[in-house]
Amino acid sequence: MDAAQQESTARARELQRSWYGEPLGALFRRLIDDLGLNQARLAAVLGLSAPMLSQLMSGQRAKIGNPAVVQRVQALQDLAGQVADGSVSAGEATDRMEEIKKSQGGSVLTGTSQTTNSSGAPTVRRVVREIQSLLRSVAAAGDIIDAADSLAPTQPELAEFLRVYGAGRTAEAVAHYEAHQS
C-alpha cells in the first residue's frame, strides 16, 4: 500500500470513529467474535455484499450509506451484549439475527425483550440508539459537530445534545439521557 492509500485508509478510519464510535473493522470483528459469525454471514445479516463489508472493514470505504444497515449494526451490537451477559442464548441469537436481517429499519425488533423492560417501556439504551440513528441518518458526525459549534454560543443545551447523540458514544448518550430524566 502506498503512502496515499495509507493516508486515505487512516482518514476513513478516523471518519468511522467519529460516525460510529470506532473503526468499522474493529466493530465488525467484535460482532463476528461475539456472535460466532463469519464475514459472509455478517454481510448477509446486515444486507451488505461481502466485498462492501470488506471495504468498510479495511477502511477503503468510510461510510455505510444505508440507514437501515446502520440500524442493523446497532441491533447486532445490542444482541451481542445480551449474548455476552447471558440474557440471550445462542439459539435465540440465531433467531434474532434472522429478524434483524429482515428488518427494513425503523424500530428494529419492537416488542422483543431486548427493546423493552418489564413494564413494556422501551429501554434507555434502545431510546438512545433510536435518537442516535435518526441524527446519524440525516448528517455525518462532522456536520453535526459543526452545527453544534454554530449553536453553542446561543443554545448551549441544544449544542450539547447534538454533540452527545450525534457524534458521541452510546454510553455517553445513555448517561446524558438518564441525567436529564428527572
TrEMBL record:
The protein's name: DNA-binding protein
Keyword Electron transport tagged: no
Region (Disordered): 102-121
InterPro entries, alphabetized: Cro/C1-type_HTH, Lambda_DNA-bd_dom_sf
Comp. bias intervals (Polar residues): 104-121
Keywords attached to this entry: DNA-binding
Gene Ontology terms, MF aspect: DNA binding
Phylogenetic classification of the source organism: Bacteria, Bacillati, Actinomycetota, Actinomycetes, Kitasatosporales
